[in-house]
UniProtKB/TrEMBL annotation:
Domain spans labelled Cytochrome c-type biogenesis protein H Ig-like: 53-150, 169-268
Protein name: Cytochrome c-type biogenesis protein H Ig-like domain-containing protein
Signal sequence interval, chain numbering: 1-18
Keywords assigned by UniProt, alphabetized: Signal
Organism domain of life: Bacteria
Coiled-coil residue spans: none
Species, as recorded: Candidatus Nitrohelix vancouverensis
Any Pfam family hit: Ig_CycH
Length: 276
């Protein structure tokens, strides 16, 4: 009886090993693999939201050159936080054809489903965070919707930004005859009277056109615990080499203001002190 049991066990393992070997010797045909991959791709593409983004004629003059176009999708009713899916485009021309689908989700495995608010935003500084003056448009769509249209017909006014944000315009003095090619505009905020050292907040704006409307606030702070508040010195520097440190050919202006001020005017027209 014992020998019979051992024989049965041996036979079972022999058959199991043979089956495994058979599977290894007969892998899935390449044609079948391709068919499965194609079906998966078609299924994902069938969920894409496809359409066109247009620039409202009334806003055409407000569209910055070399702007970056962001397209993001969030669940309907959600206005902040990480999007479900997103895309970034540069050097776009309107009307601009787009698609957004499962292949664009921010985190692998995130379902691309249900009603979504799709936002297209033309961003002047290439930063994913919206800023004052950005053009945008929205629509509600479902996965698989085709021939949708998003019109860039609204201007971001930063209503959700902290009230301490400073808004204003940077312009050039008439004595500045030309802007050096490749020059970069820097904005720095320090405590009132402080001219050197790390700023409280800063922005770098390449290819700025003047007059340039700006905002500078808590979202631009350099350190996690920094507070953008109180009396401030704001420096606007037109930097010839694109580096944050001041150089002999840079032009700048400094104004004293307070957090929350609007309509601030900064006129650049004099050489910056070295090392500031």
């Amino acid at each position: 009886m014992k020998q019979l049991v051992l024989f049965c066990i041996f036979s079972f393992f022999f058959l199991l090993t043979a089956c495994e070997q058979e599977l290894k010797e007969h892998p899935m045909p390449i044609a079948m693999k391709r068919q499965i991959q194609q079906e998966t791709t078609v299924s994902a593409q069938g969920q894409d939201i496809v359409g066109v983004i247009t620039l409202d004629e009334r806003r055409a003059k407000e569209a910055p050159e070399n702007a970056v176009l962001f397209i993001v999708a969030r669940p309907e009713g959600v206005t902040s936080g990480p999007p479900i899916a997103a895309k970034r485009f540069s050097l776009v021309k309107f009307p601009f054809s787009f698609s957004l689908g499962p292949g664009d989700v921010m985190r692998p495995g995130t379902p691309f489903e249900g009603k979504m608010t799709v936002t297209a935003r033309l961003d002047s500084d290439g930063n994913a965070q919206p800023m004052f003056g950005d053009l945008f448009g929205t629509l509600t769509a479902l996965p698989g919707d085709q021939q949708v249209e998003i019109a860039l017909d609204q201007v971001y006014v930063a209503s959700e930004e902290p009230s301490t944000t400073v808004y204003g315009t940077v312009s050039l003095d008439p004595s500045v005859s030309a802007v050096k090619e490749g020059a970069v505009l820097f904005l720095f905020a320090r405590a009132e009277g402080v001219r050197r050292g790390p700023p409280i907040a800063a922005k770098r704006i390449p290819d700025a056109t003047f007059p340039y409307e700006f905002s500078l606030g808590q979202t631009d702070t350099m350190m996690p615990n920094a507070v953008f508040d109180g009396k401030l010195s704001i420096t606007a520097r037109l930097d010839s080499d694109g580096l944050a440190g001041a150089g002999p050919d840079d032009l700048e202006a400094v104004i004293e203001t307070s957090a929350g001020q609007k309509g601030v005017n900064i006129v650049i027209g004099q050489a910056s002190p070295a090392g500031s």
